Amino acid sequence: MAVSESPRKLLPNTETRKLLLKWLVAVLVPVCVFTYVWVGEQMVNGVWLSLLYPDVTSLDHDPWSLIIQSLFLLLVYGSAIALSGYLVAADSGRRNMLEVWFDVAFATVVPLVLLAVTSNLLISIGLAVVVWGIYLFVRTRIRRARHYTPPAPLASLHVIDDKERGALLRLAQQAGLWFGIIFAVITLVADIIFFATDQLAPLLLIWVAVRTVLLPVAGYFLGRLGGRMALRYTVAPDAGIEVAQSEGAQRGRMGWRGNARKVSREEQLQSLSASRASEEARDVVPNDKPLQSRGATRIYLMLLMTFVVLYPILDPILFGSGTKGRITSYGDLGFYVILALGLNIVVGFAGLLDLGYVAFFVIGTYAWSMVGSPQFYVLTGMIARPEIFSWFFWPMLIIAALLTALWGVLLGAPTLRLRGDYLAIVTLGFGEIIPIVFTQMDKYTNGTDGIAGVYPPATPCIGSFCLNWSNSPTPYYYLILILIGVCIFANVRLRDSRMGRAWIAIREDEIAAASSGINLVNTKLFAFAAGAFFAGIAGVYHAAKLGTVAPGDFNSTDSIIYLAMVVIGGLGSIPGVLVGAVVVYAINLLILNQLDTYASDPSNFLHFLPQLIHNFTFSNVRNLLFGIILIVIMIFRPEGLIPSARRRRELHHTTNEDEEAEPSALDQPPGTPEFEAEMKVE
Asked: Which residue ranges run through the membrane (predicted)?
């Protein structure tokens, strides 16, 4: 097979320097901001000072904490070096340098600066999303004014032979080496300045010298690692699949392979629609957007997972005091994520508009509260000993989830013939009824007083080490991480299963799905049951973590919040739902809630509003502000922050696909010669 000529084969030295400059600056700037604007340098020096000065009590000498900090720093800086090598090898070189720098600045530098200013992870994420949205809006308007047309996705697709693979690997090594050299020089100059101003301990000069030597060496090998990652996504000359030469190929002793030919990766992509080709070509190296390719995404996910898992130990170092309150709020965010994942099954996968989802959350919450509390004695006359009944939390996770799933079936049964607005009204009524019912059941739920003294979970001790569920939020943090992981796994398996495909078919066209043999009754009922199942898990966790359950904690507007998480994140998109839950929680429950606190500070720029408007408080206009944010997002990002591929194609229909559609004689008016010739009307 002929190898297509690539502009990267004989890359001139000038182009090589431009490529290196583009991505070295793009990666070095965020790393320097993390190091010198936020807490990178402080963490590194803190680890070494703890080792070099073991007698200083003000330093953290906990071995476990020092190991975690060292591991996190190695992953951050190692990933940055490997990413620089990957990006240089994966870039087609066609995107403008300034455009790349602006994208990286608003995607990474702005969030890091906000983290340093606000010292709150979720608030900085919410503000960064707003800033990123404004930037995208301005960038789109500038492109339209300049009549900018993005390059075709297949234009940068080339077959890479062994010679060019070696050239790409050397280019990645070169990028990693230069990254290490430049960063070593920057850190050396900074540390010399710190030492001259008595801000650096003399013993740390040993570490400065060792780091200056190690960074270029590490850069060489990590850049090579990034290059190897990029080579995994290249198209080799013999890459392709075998297909039958004709649809009527006979299946003899060798099967269809006896009459087969190999189709190259280029031919495969060119045979797809324009939108599908754009999605597939984005991951093939070289490409125009290496920052969004699969290899770079894997590096981001590795860093994100490391940060999430190690967060309870890193929080006091990264954000200072208030660790307990922040971890508690992140535990609350966790059950919002589970609720959004469950609602995504009903609304995103099956297309059933459910405005009463909070009802299932209420059922799951009261299920554990009535069993794992002194209320159990009121119901049965049996004394519930906390040290024994706390162990029932684990089976109740499944029992309560199954109970809410049953209620999901009971809700879905009367609504099988309803669609759209009618379904929304019925489910909204169900969401209003259930909390009121629990309020009126004084004998079982203690009525409007709620249930107090709900037991926390119980876990076995390992030697002298026991989890403190009563006074520490950290066990709940890791518990919700495990539950989220299980729910994501279940969502992915359901989406890719036969039932998941049936849900999507019903969402797209219910009549066509029924005509294809899909059982609408069973499929819809299973969607309601699956969504309610996850709400039950979230309810049990919420009751155990909070310790009390009050009817005032639930109202119908909660269902609107859950739906907003799904829609803003991206209907049917599991990563989108996760991001949507974080963004909505950060904006609505953290940022807007604290505006009055900011306005009361005379040094804050919001302080002029209470002075200008008599009796003004942000709490009075909180829902107004949240509504405006929702409207703006839906106008400029109707598919959601991270949409599913199908929904992205629906809302951004490519004009090339319309042009490729061949006109049919059936498109002609009846009675015309063309229509009669095709239909053979006599």
From this structure: 20-39, 66-88, 100-116, 122-138, 175-197, 203-223, 299-321, 333-353, 360-379, 391-410, 422-441, 476-494, 525-544, 560-591, 612-636
Same domain, 430 and 473: yes
- Distance in Å from the first CA to the final CA of the chain: 51
Range of the domain at 499: 324-554
Residues 275 and 335 in one domain: no
Q: How far is 404 from 343, CA to CA, in rounded Å?
A: 13
Q: Look at residue 518 and tell me if it is in a domain.
A: yes
Whole-number Å distance between alpha carbons of 533 and 398 = 9
Are 356 and 256 in the same domain? no
Residue 198: which pLDDT band, with cuts at 50, 70 and 90? confident
Answer whether residue 277 shows pLDDT above 80: no
Same domain, 194 and 249: no
Residue 10, Cβ density class (10 Å: 0-12 exposed, 13-18 middle, ≥19 buried): exposed
Mean pLDDT confidence for 576-581: 93
Q: What pLDDT score does 154 carry?
A: 62
User: What is the per-residue DSSP string for 470-496?
Assistant: TT-SHHHHHHHHHHHHHHHHHHHHHHH
Residue identified by tokens 């009590």 is: 57
In a domain, 264, yes or no: yes
Residue in 33, 40, 25, 164 with CA at minimum distance from that of residue 87: 25
C-alpha 379/C-alpha 366 separation (Å) is: 13
User: How far is residue 392's CA from residue 386's CA, in Å, rounded to a whole number?
Assistant: 10
